[in-house]
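Dear Dr. V.,

Thank you for agreeing to look over these. As mentioned in my earlier message, I'm a first-year student in the group and I'm still getting used to reading structure tokens, so any feedback on how I've presented them would be very welcome. I ran two proteins. I've put each sequence directly above its structure. The first is here:
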Amino acid sequence: MFDRINHRVYALPTVLFLLLSILFVSTGIYIQKDEQSARASKAQSVAEQVKISLEVFSTERVKAIYNLMQNWPTFEPNPVDWFNTQSLSLMGMQRGYSSLAYIDKTGTIQWVATPEAGTKTRIDNSLIGEPMAALGLAIPTLSESLDSAILYSPSTQHHHILLGRAISPQEPEHGYIVAGFDVQTILGVMLGELVGPQFNFKLQAGNSTLFASGEMVDDGTLVSLPPFKFIDRDITLSMQSQFSPFNPGMLIIVIGLLMSALVSYVFHKQLKGAVHLSVSQQRYLTASEASLDALLIYQPSQNDYTLVEANSYSEYLFRGAVDVMKKMSLAEQSRFLGIPEEFEKAANVAKNGAPYEGYVAIKSDKIVPEWIKIQVVNAGNNIALTIRDVTERFKAQKDLEDSEERYRRLVDGMHRHFVYTKTAEHSFIYVSAGVEKILGYKPEQFCAHEMRYVQQVPDETFEIREAIARGQKPAAYLVHYQGQCGKSYVVEFSDTPILNEKGDLTAVEGIARDVTKELALHEEVHFQANHDQLTGLLNRYAFNAQLRDILKETRAENKTAELAGESTSSVLRNIRDTHSQNQRRSVMCFIDMDRFKLVNDSCGHPAGDKLLKEVSTVFRQYVNGDDLLARIGGDEFCIIFRDQGLDSVLKRLDKLLLAISNYRFVYDDKLFFVGASIGVIEINAQTQSAETLIKAADNACYKAKHLGRNRYFVYRDGDAQLAIDDSENKVLQALHKALQNDGFELYSQAIMPLTVPSEVSTHYPQHYEILLRLNASESGLISPGLFIPLAERHGLMNKVDLWVVDNTLKTLEANPAHLDNVGKVAINLSGITLGDEIALQKIVQRMQGTTVPAEKVCFEITETTAVTNLAAAKHFISTLRDIGCSFALDDFGAGMSSFTYLKNLDVDYVKIDGSFVRNIVHDPIDHATVTAINNIAHSMGKQTVAEFVVDNATAQVLQKLNVDFGQGFALDKPKPLAHRVQWRVKLASV
């Protein structure tokens, strides 16, 4: 029985939905077809009007040409003057001619008459003296009819119709007349007046499209007229009314389906509600028992009412006296509770049916609250009372009055903020006392003379006020003021429109704050984000942005030069060749310092930093204000010599290389000779992209190194095979072999806790980072600094990352005793892997199939790769965090240095870039930077790791700053992972 009822609950609404849907869909389809018919009829009518107008225009012009020939004088001493006068008169009376040409009996062009300046024409005075063939016509001498041709002019980029005939076939000595018409101009004017923007159309003469507007779709509304004459040429016209953005048929279908679904859903709910009424009653009883209001039901009893139902909360509210109250009438209960007047009000509800609601102060000890809210409603023949404890609300009113006074004191004491009220005309009528602390003006003085103190208003002031007038809250905006002390301040306003019940603006309220310091700090941060902190040069990101701008400018200017050089005449071809020779060119130089690693390895990173600063000073001497100089990597620089040819740049590079070769670097009584290998490439209109350009220059730089260092190598289009030198090929081959034959070797370096006492740290779970070395049989281990850039350049880095993940887990799986003592194992992932969905799935599958707990694995991603593809990074992190892995943000501070990105990335650790850590003992700016990064990371609940801890003094400073972990040679040197695992196993066995 219940199954049949339940079947009807779903079947009947489904049938109703199908019937209503069929009705609405049918109606929508009918309306759509009717709309298509109306559009086709409208297009047909307008097309006929266009045809008539074009035929009338054509007939008048052809007739005028015949009249000009018929009126040709038999004896005229100067036919050119006569022709010029008549043709100018004709073009003045009838618009549409682009030119009229007179050709003598020998077929030589004698005169060309054109309308006012600015008219596009296929025939001009430059053709005087040329033969008739220069016009593209061959007019027969004895023909009575007009000869015509359609020609396209590259110079005007328009189609032109030329009409010509012998003036008198019987008297050929009079010569010929040729009339030219600019088709695009004529059709553009006439169709613009007749058709308007609501139609798409196309006019064709043969295979040539003379004029078109919009894109036509063959949906049954396209109208095509039979060919008709236009200036002695057969043309066809196709026209279509544009689609209306409002599609009533589809709207009816969508709304009808929604309404059908809604009606069916309501019907279903009603049926379901009827079936489950008993369940609902039980739920109602449960809800009433869980209610925080006392619910009482009374039934009539003679002239009074008797309590029949009361929920459990009533026992608490009436201090357990519900059973006693059930023996009393409602009038007796009112007197028992000390509120006899409420009985009359409850009785009135039963008589007139109008609900009653009131607040009552309680003085009796029979009721727990001090204030109650009583609601009385009819419940059939019964009445229902709801009693709520509102003691806290009435207490809150008193607290509100007290808080208003506290609010006024708070507003007047706000630091660097003030609240304000403006009229609908944006005149200040109230500001709090905070304005005096910011600008020095008293509130009443500021309200009276605010406009005197304004130095600059936002450019979008008009739009802001329009938005406020519409009742919309605008975005915060900045106003510059001059303070009483003469100093400039920037105040940010956040306006809120105040509307009356009619929706009219009555006032504007808001809060303002002093953002002078924030803006100054933002400018400083912007500078730091675009400049290398060590050398002060542009960094990689700023350089890439400016390089893309240079490429856009080069392509735009060269394209303009090419268009200016297009012509069919030999003179203009020479001009075009001159343009092509003067196309805008620039030269980019990719510089890699020679023997820089020797300085770093011999004297440490402080010496390397000092070398980079001094070398950047040398580079600055060989660039001017128009050139770009940037540091794009550790010891890599880029220079763009703007608007200079390759020959002049090479002369400057010769001087630069000479200066570098003469430069001597001295550090701790050690003398070093350095050099610079330079890859040179020209930037022109054929340059494909910034990435291609940098890659080619980088390859040329490697070639310069291979040829002997401290020299330049010019990359040319045919040098693709020279991009990778022999040594690079060997490393690349070793990389491929290692991927096939497990030729890598895993190393590791400890990450030591800094906030744990030394006697406890020995028992602290071991944290370490996985490092990678390439094992080449001939030359031993290859540094990651050599093979990782090659792997990234050749798209192999994701395979390398997967190898490291797989083999790290294999090592840990094979050594469970070591795994018990491990806290975290950090594995680096490249930017390529971060955006590779397939690599992500492989890592997830490997982690799910391993015996290594996921919480012991921490993946490290660099700040720059995460920011470059923020969406992919967030997806990658969330997927692996869901299975238990943790994440660290590596090299933080060296790239974007944006704490906004840190807030948006769900990482557990922040690794402070070593460029800030290694000089922290001596450089106060680095000390402040590390302090700020550490404090903000801690405030976000993230732990910090300091890289490049080079000595014990650095470690002690980091401990004082409460940095959580440290990593560097002073704490632990890299060692093979196999040795670390064996050492831990032996230690455990001892």
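The second protein is here, in the same arrangement:
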Amino acid sequence: MYLKKYIILIFILGASVKSDAQKDWSPQPSNIKTRWAQEVSPTNALKEYPRPQMVRKGWTNLNGLWDYAIVGKDVQMPKAYQGKILVPFPLESSLSGVKRALLPEECLWYHKDIIIKRQAQKRVLLNFGAIDNNAIVYVNGEKIGGHEGGYTNFSIDITDALKDGSNEILVKVSDATEQGVFPHGKQVLHPENIYYTPSSGIWQTVWLESVPDSHISKVRFTPDIDKGILNLQVNINGIIGDCNIEAIAYADGRMVSNSRFSPADSLIELKIADPSEVHLWSPVDPFLYDLKIRLIKDGKIVDEISSYFGMRKIAIHKDKAGFERIFLNNQYTYNLGTLDQGFWPDGLMTAPTDEALAFDIKAIKAMGFNTIRKHIKIEPARWYYHADKLGMLVWQDFVNPNQALPEGAKTAFEVQTKETLDQLHNYPSIITWVLFNEQWGSYDQQRLTEWVKAQDPSRLVNGHSGEYIFIDGKETKTGKNNWISSDMTDIHSYPDPTNPPNIDGKVMVLGEFGGIGVFVPDHQWNPSNAWGYAQVTASSLKGKYAIMTNTLRLLEREGLSGSIYTQPFDVESEQNGLITYDREIIKIPFEEIRSLNEHLVEIGKVPAVTAMNADLSDPAIIYSKMMDEYIQGRNDTVFLYKLAVAARQVSDKPGVHRISNEYIAKLSRPYSKEKLEFIMENTFSTKDPGFKILQAQLKDTASLLEQRTVTMKLMNSIFTDSIEPFLKDTTVDVDWNDIEKSIKEFGNAGEEIFLRAKTIYYYNKTDWKNYAPVAAIYLSKYGKNIIEQEKKVFESAMANK
């Protein structure tokens, strides 16, 4: 009933939406998925109100099935749509129902029809939580606005483009990922190691909102616990006549403050209580005040929003020993954190459900941490809401600029950073901004650090996390600016913790350490490609973690005020989390890791979360028992796959080769992307069964693999089998004619590696007479595949010799 007062919006399919939607969509296969994936459907995709700090009742969720098309960038508009995509799950995700990469030369188009009844003196806002990366929005064929940058929200007033009845919404998206100028975070087109699958397109909630002609457009508040006030700023759109703003604060339903002021007032002080009576927010007691803000005209409420705030203070002061410390609410509070990257096996950057989104924070708190470093990602508003409600301190990274700093990257980074500062200002959980990470595209560090501090003096600024990096105690990356103008000195030390330099006026923190890899069979994104700074078994992880925690306790006595463990959850090829990527297995039981962390921090109420404890059996014993079954004749494909993975985990190289080849030989078309990746990772010879499969992939226009990557894989195998053996005896001349005949069957891949090997052979022998003609052929045919520096060497040799 209340919804109709503001706006009537019904999907064109009306009552038949549900049945048609179920028929048109299903999640794509994935190696692993979370328990929440099965709850996702077109009728319940992230239905919660997406903006908890500015809530209105007159809204309509547009998540669900949209039409989609992927076309070239030069196409003005698609002539037809290729199917349905489930919004807000990114194109590349399983839950989108598509699971397809968006290439830099392509555009992704979204289409949805809605029915709207226009109402006088009402405006309609179309809101997007985030679209990665560049978006243009059309309503009824009219371009009405857009946004650049993949991590921040935007809103467009679409009222003037609407008509009574059916309306068409189109969204055009392009995403060049690391080939573009905009911050892309950990997303890359070819994920590996610490870089992950992209999340192109709409990846946060889309919703319509009905507002009056004059309405509240933005609120900003900053607590001051020493004065017992909330500094409040309210922006209004379309003020007509004499209006007032009313702000009412509540504590547990009881009104504690009520103030009216003029919209012309840029900043007002809302008195909450005497400082001694203010109920403070902290991880131990995450108390939140409720807030209502009303726009009043002629004695009537024109617009009203609901919000909340927390009264907390963050600062740096010296302790009795003379060390600079992080003080929360005027008390020293050690920041014991973990590096949370916010990726999901089924939704990629989008959590499958709101319950899943909250689970991550609950699990981290249940492990005994009081801090999350949100790493190179901006989360949806509801993630920060859960952090506020549950009581979690947050160090918020900005999404780093493109590391190569192409033209325009600096401007794009600063625009995205300013939007991030504005968007996240009101969350009490955020206590620190992290400007740069490990020199990834860092520039103008002093200017930008001071700029962030000027934009938000109420928080700490970590100007450079990991400006110095230590691996196994050795310095591998040296800082340039020594944390100039930063509130912190911050190093990264893997795997074991150590203290950063003690610089007067700066607090000492350890921005990253740990990264201990533990593989859990059947719970891995990519079992053949696991990464961590060190590898241990599940049975020994607790002991290793206990040693590192004891080291932290000693370092804390020497001035350390915060530490960030890498990491709470496995992510794609990284299997160094405390919990598996699917959130099913915890590698150290909750109560046991919490008992270790309690030496450093107090977390208050422990959230109720569930995950199975890891199997502490010796992987070699498990593998040995599986090999017994194999020897006795078990060879179904499911078993062979698990056996191949187990062989790799215990470093049985002969076993990996034998079993992987047997498994690959049993596979049949069509091959999933996961199976093709397994074939890629386990093909090393032209005699391996995977070699012919990969050859066929080069001819398959619908291949799920990147062709150049396949070609290089084939070239390596051809070189190993057909060329390298003839190069080992340096006392005899190589018969290149015989080699050329032997690789004819391998096509272009064989020719390219043959010409490359022959060119390098004569270059190394300084046989310029034979070098020049073969190098000329090689460069003319395959020069586009050579890195520029190497190409210049070859060309220079041709010119000068």
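From my reading of the second output: DSSP finds 18 helices and 37 strands in the chain. The longest strand covers residues 106-116. Does that match how you would interpret it?

Kind regards,
E.
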